[in-house]
Amino acid sequence: MVGQIGVDLTLIGNLSATGYARWADVDADIENNGDSIGTTKLDPVTVGAGLIYWS
Q: What are the φ and ψ backbone dihedral angles of 13, each rounded to 5 degrees?
């Protein structure tokens, strides 16, 4: 499962800002020489922002 939310805003005529957050639900099986030794759960979150200028 994956989720994402974001926003884009025009600040003035040729300048805008953007921001986002992403989340992922990841489960992985762990093996050692072909033998299952367990599972792990990873839930990374990525956050980003930026400014965009155009002429």
A: -40, -50
pTM (2 d.p.): 0.68
C-alpha to C-alpha distance for 4 and 6, rounded to whole angstroms: 7
pLDDT band at 29 (very low <50, low <70, confident <90, very high): very high
Write the DSSP string, the chain. Answer: -EEEEEEEEEEETTEEEEEEEEEE-EEEEEEETTEEEEEEEE--EEEEEEEEE--
Closest CA to 53 of 13, 22, 23: 13
Choose among 25, 20, 23, 22: nearest CA to 1.
Answer: 25
Is the separation of the CB atoms in 4 and 38 below 8 Å?
no
